[in-house]
Amino acid sequence: MIAIDGPAGTGKSSVSRLLAQRVGAHYLDTGAMYRAATLAVLRSGVGVEDADAMARVVDDAEVELVEREESAAAVVLLDGEDVSDAIREAEVTANVSAVSANPAVRAKLVELQRRLAGDRFVVVEGRDIGTVVFPAAELKVYLTATPEARAARRLRQDTAAGRDADYDAVLASVNRRDHLDTTREASPLRPADDAVIFDTSELTLPQVLDGLITLTEKRIGVKQ
């Protein structure tokens, strides 16, 4: 088990997928699961401030991650529908922290994450993987970067995907999500006590990947 945590915009998803491919592991994107749950809530018309109603919507929703042989990235299904693109839209991004702060939502998805991981060799990324979901993971990494670096990355991603974006608005969104994620009562974002802190502010994706591969080789003896 390799647990990779950290705030939005640190490159967790991209580097975790690549790491899983390089070391022959499965990849579990828990953030995509919370985004799917958020999409379910938005589609239901329930307000994110209504904790009980939101929990009921997510409890009734079926969230699945279907692995593809040709890619480490899984297809995200919500009630059987492929929502892999829909969960990346701005409205989902703006509301996912509020939905994921709901203890009942987290309880359901943590159970699903543990079931999906099973006893396989897996790279799992999220915000509470090393602290709550898999506290016994052999390698725990906490990726971090300055808010400005993360906002610039998110802006490039949005632009490349054809989504309208403004740097100041993206930076404000990053800071807002950091605050929500680190101050929520249920599983707040923080490094595990035994996590390796890895600052990616000035690093390229290949450099981050090389660093994680080295850590994997040293900590759990797995070579690419």
Written overview of the protein:
The chain is an alpha/beta fold and 224 residues long. Helix 2 (30-44) crosses helix 5 (103-117). The two termini are 15 Å apart. It is globular, with a radius of gyration of 17 Å. It has helices spanning 12-23, 30-44, 51-60, 90-100, 103-117, 129-133, 147-160, 167-183, 205-220; strands at residues 2-5, 26-29, 63-68, 71-78, 81-82, 122-126, 139-144, 196-199. The mean pLDDT is 91. The chain has 9 helices and 8 strands.
Walk me through the topology.
Layout: E1 2-5, H1 12-23, E2 26-29, H2 30-44, H3 51-60, E3 63-68, E4 71-78, E5 81-82, H4 90-100, H5 103-117, E6 122-126, H6 129-133, E7 139-144, H7 147-160, H8 167-183, E8 196-199, H9 205-220
Parallel strand pairs: 1-6, 1-7, 2-6, 7-8
Antiparallel strand pairs: 3-4, 4-5
Helix pairs in contact: 1-9, 2-4, 2-5, 3-5, 7-8
| Radius of gyration, taken over Cα atoms and rounded to an integer in Å | 17 Å
Structural class of the secondary structure composition? Answer: alpha/beta
Distance between the termini: 15 Å
- How many helix segments? 9
Strand order of the largest sheet: 2-6-1-7-8
- General form: globular
Give the strand content.
15-25%
Q: What series of H and E elements makes up the topology? A: EHEHHEEEHHEHEHHEH
- Spans with pLDDT under 50 lasting ≥5 residues? none
Largest sheet: 5 strands, parallel
Mean pLDDT: 91
Helix content: 40-55%
